[in-house]
Queue: 2 jobs
Job 1
Amino acid sequence: MEFQIIWFVLWGLLWAVYFALDGFDLGAGILYPFISKSEIDKKAALHAIGPVWNGNEVWLITAGGATFAAFPTTYAYMFSYLYTPLLIILFALIFRGVAVELRGKSTSEGMKKFWDFWLFVGSFIPALLFGVAFGNIFKGLPFDDSGYYGTFFSLLNPYGLLVGLLFLFTFIVHGGLWVSLRVPEELANRALSTAKKFWILQAITAVLFLVFTALFTNLYDNFIKMPVWFIVPALAVVCLLLTGSYIMKNKNGSAFLFSFLFIIALIFSGVIGLYPNLIPSSIDPKYSLTIFNSSSSPYTLKVMTIVVIIFVPIVLLYQAWTYKTFMYKITEEELKEEGY
Amino acid sequence: MDIVLLSRLQFAITAAFHFIFVPLTLGLSVLVAYMESKYVATGDKDYLRMAKFWGVLFLINFALGVVTGITMEFQFGMNWAEYSRYVGDIFGSPLAIEATLAFFLESTFLGVWIFGWNRISPKLHALSIWLVALATNISALWILIANGWMQNPVGYVIRNGRAEMVDFWAVVTNPYAILKFFHTVMSGWVVAGFFILGVSAYHLLRKNETEFFKKSFKIGATFALISSILVAFIGHFHAHEVAHTQPTKIAAMESLWETTKDAPMYLLLIPDPKNEKNSVEAIGIPGLLSFLAGKKEIKGLKEFPPQDRPPVTLTFVSFRLMVGLGFLFILLSFLALVKFKEIEQSTTLLRILLWSIPLPYIAAQLGWIVAEVGRQPWIVYGLLRTSDAVSKAVEPIQVMASLIGFTIFYSALGIIDIYLLSKYAKKGPEPKEV
């Protein structure tokens, strides 16, 4: 297999893992001010993501770094074309990171409220805008060989916003489920019932996504050419339905697992539809940035493949170990002590 | 204003701000790990309190280092798209490797360290902070391999309208990068050593937890002395490498206009770039400059066309100040160690040490100015000009807006950081358990 294809799969995988992991941190950051009734509740919700959020965010940095290393031309044009939205996401991620880490170091009520606000904003914006960005990539960006013709506001088109909402609702459900797994019972019940409500919105936007993707993008072309790939979006649909059915039965563990798998299958459905493009041009396909015309040299791709084959499994192993270590119900006593 | 200048200004501000947090992280992670290991080995609870007290300061600092680091990765593509396209085949790899090898390890085990006090064994807990310390320093290695390539490009050919990597090993073992790595990491350790000395001095002056802070003081002083000697020693060889690979930079660092054999070093010197000379040159030490550069004959700036020369005054002044501060650090940490036994009485020294906390930070910033301003007008030395590297799809107004945004936002973060650091530093450690 060509290295470009290997790296295309890895590129998709990095994004998929990023959203499946940090998605619940973002969701928890959006939900926690609304489901908490006391300071202890807030601490519990943040404690739920505390040990893992930072490691999860590194998947984003690695996805960015991998794009740079494997597809430098795409990295260069994607980041400069999407200057303003990326800047907003960047600021939001800074808000979130600082707020998560420093909230617990602030003692006054006012400062805590201040961090609550920024943690919410810093989680809400990336959840929405990552979806908007991917929606626009699915649709294609208006560029040719002399430059880019879009603006920030042209990205906020109906299809882009639809995918933005799909991401937002997905992460809220995902975050609600994660929080419900880790916090004391009363708060866990509130988190779960919020996830229930948002699952309905998630399901509606998912159906709209399936329909409007046919109207606004060329993603279905690859599937029609090779129908065997329909298995991936079909899996996404099944996972989403199972998430819903387990939520309704209050089985939050299984629901979380399927929510996780749904995100992976969703991202891969998009990635399969994009192939061989990384960013299609909506002006003319001949300008599209593909994995073949924007990749690094075979030598660099080979070096990076070796690095990834050795080190990513190690990362997965120790991250899995931390999940195992911290996958327990937080107790009330513990919250009076340390952490955030 | 033109886009190149705006983009450079933004990169300079965001990089300088990021590098306020990085050096302390580099050194303090190692020291906290050392303290916690001491506790695990001896069972002395003072070391546990120490690891926790300095650990909180480490965490506050670390949080800002991480978030401001993401900006750097984004900016290469956002503001320097032509650069990224042209050198991404080489430059992208160390960045991706940095994330894979270092960032994951660092972030994951920091989470384990913060939340694991009662969940994992003390040994495993100490191991987790060692992994953080290791990862932080590995991360410096890879980013400096990337930066080292911009200073001294190796292991590539120009093909398909861009630079393509042909020898990964040459990129990784680039002597420029390796020397710069050790020089930079040691400068971070100096920052951490002086940070501990200064905060301990504050409490020793107030006779607060004397025993605790004397122990900390001793660790800080030893660490500061060793690393400030090493930073100067490695810096000396780093200068040789610069003289060897970047003739315009070394000439600007010394404000040398005419090619000179056995060049002297003037202790007092004022550059006059307009007239391509120095307006003051006094107290020359014969042959010292040639010795420091490790070269008999040093090319003067006039050998190079004006459009290929870096800004001389800024490079020169930054270099001089950095070197001066470097010697001061050796002297101060030496005094701190010599006077350690009755340090409570040496109130003048304690006061000096307290006020010296910012100095290693300043020296580190000055070092970066020498490295990056001295590399101009090149973004990749001798290969790609900074003016050709900027994004074509971005409008000046966008960069102006983001520059203002970063300035306001980062200032606020800086204030919050200083406020929290000083609050927790002044508060002192948790009281001893009775």
Job 2
Amino acid sequence: MLMTNDDVATPRDTGLRIKTEVKAPTGAALPPSEGPDIVCRKVNLAYGDNHVLHDVTMDMEDRRVTALIGPSGCGKSTLLRCLNRMNDLIDNVRTWGEIRVKGLDVNAPSTDVIEVRRRVGMVFQKSNPFPKSIYENVVYGLRIAGIGDKTTLDEACERSLRGAALWDEAKDRLDESGLGLSGGQMQRLCIARAIAVEPEIILMDEPCSALDPIATLKIEELMYRLKERYTIVIVTHNLQQAARISDKTAFFWLGRLVEFGPTAEMFTAPKDKLTEDYITGRFG
Amino acid sequence: MGTLADASRGEAGLNPTQPRGGQRGAPDAPWSLIKSVRRGEPMIWLTGSALGISILMIAGLIVVILVNGLGLFWPKPLEQVTLEDGSVFLGELTSREGIPNPGQPDHLQKQRILLRVGNRDLYGFDFKWLNEDDIAKRETPREAYFIERREYGALIGVPVAVKDGERTLAADTPAARMALAELIEKAERDRHAVETIEKHEIGGINYEIEKARLESRRLDLALSQEPGRDLSRERAAVEKATAEQQARFQTKAAELSALMAKAGTSYVTFRTAEGGSKDLRSLDIYRAYPANDLSWAGRVGVYSGRLWEFVSGNPREANTEGGIFPAIFGTVMMVILMSIVVVPLGVLAALYLREYAKQGPLVRTVRIAVNNLAGVPSIVFGVFGLGFFVYFVGGGIDRLFFPEALPTPTFGTGGILWASLTLALLTVPVVIVASEEALAAVPRSMREASLAMGATKFQTILRVVLPAAAPGILTGLILAMARGAGEVAPLMLTGVVKLAPELPLDGFLPFMHLDRKFMHLGFHIYDVGFQSPNVEAAKPMVYTTTIFLLIIVVLLNLTAIIVRNKLREKYKTGAF
């Protein structure tokens, strides 16, 4: 925790100890956003009688990284899993409110959950490659979509592994088990698997929490590259990470969205007292 | 458990400067005893000895079976015993024991010997007890022969002459011994030729005739249902086929009797110990060796020859001699059929229970019921198999598909299919339980990864869950096979027989005859040991057959274990 917050002066910055520099991707500036990609309107969720999300309303922009932060149990992962309906797997879950992903009403009865999940890829906290070869891991999504053409699969495999910055390390061992990779490589393999089906959105649920700093750095660099093409929503407990990689940050507390705004503003001049307390480490 | 907890606490609380184990044999014995109890040493001894006793019992079992079973084929020396009263006996020394005479001072003091004298056709008995006190002379004549033949058990005597019809080929013992080896080889060839005609050629003709008979019955049935239908052409075809086969049968039967007449003319004359004589057709001799005049190589030769005959031959003499090949074949085929049925059934049931069914009281009840099903006595499954599979399903199949053969049942009687299905039912709880555990052990993260990729539940199960659970499912199969291969009781009701004339797999269409009865090693042990007319002679056979049953079970399990380990290697989960 370094005291690096020196160039921004606001009336309430006295306690800030978080590094808040937001790096732009090397080279060009961000392409202009085309407006909201994911629209949440009064999203609520309850596990049985336990109401865990209250009226969350937020827009996530196209080709930007949106970070969801907050203490454990605040509902940020739950919201993330609402976006591709992974909460359906849990018994006794009720969701109401509206979520639209590129115009597609996620929760509508007519919506095919398979379609939603194809358009919204996901990377999990613990890397979870299948006990198959690296190649089969990457092309899994294509295979279940019924694509069996060898050249298509080969191309998708190479493109995805390059996209996940794993090609150079894995190109000579595509037939070896995906479980033989290191932790960071496995997580990048999971990212390659997610982008192989060309989703529109990538959800990341604490993707670096089980990784060492060097592997974390690689994944973060990868996210810079990915956001040129994909909308990324990331849940993280690492506030520096949120500050480094995200364009907008949302702070959750007890199932409510407390504050949502551009990351630079959020970390330098939080509007809410709770946010300030959290990001300065006074609680959470 | 309290003592264990105390022990660990006690260990931590002990004087830390004292070296561990230093108390043993120390002068302050009561203290060291208490300390050792507190450290939990008696528990170590208790658990260790429980394991030791278990291993000892299993090792003892295997040693007893091996010692009793493997000696069966070793050629024993022949002893000629002359009694005080002048009677002479020649045979294998089988055992020696004290003569029981309770209450008298000579109780168990005097000894008697058991001689296997053979020649049941001449004496009416195979074994003879002789008191050692009555014995005047014991010797081992070099020219005495042990002969295995087609019927009446062993013949023990001295070959004195060989005749072919009226012609004498050898007139004294050395010449007869010379001729014997060649005669046995020729007998072997002749028997093979006879068997080829009897089993394969005439067997095939009989099969065709039976088919024609059933066809004509079918025509009768069709006619009775539809009077006035013109079936003369079909009937003519059937009659023609029957006549053809009958003609072929006549030729083959003539060929067979010619062969028998040619082969059955040579006789070997044996002189028995007490001076009697026996003419034995050379065609009936399977093996003959001079037991007291054998080199080591000769003995090993006899041993391996008998062992090979045992593994590959058909049984003779109410199963007490010859081989057990049909039983080995039946056991293996039944276990394989059972596995083919039980794995899909068990895995599908487990998939429903674990993946699709809504977990609740009902599923819990079903699960408990399935677990308890594994504890139902196997004979109950046998009764069910007889009532349901054999009479209900089999009878129904007969009425629907084989009405022409009735009242002779085709599937409506015990057979390898029904026995395998009954065993599959018996072992399916084991497979369900093991598969369920294997499915539950597949990490949730792996399923989520697949579902998040847009896979359906079915695709996830097929491509991710089942492959990852395969090793565990195979563990269930291994347990099921171990149980199934050793089960006898349900088989006795559903298709096992003492002697099956034909294997369930042969060269006649449709090759796999699932309706046939079969032989089984477990039942063979019971039959040889307790149902045979010659218990004393059959005793070693029981042990030898047991060895083979164990070997078969181990081999089947080993195959499944190797497959499982390969799969485990392939679908290793959890790299960190």
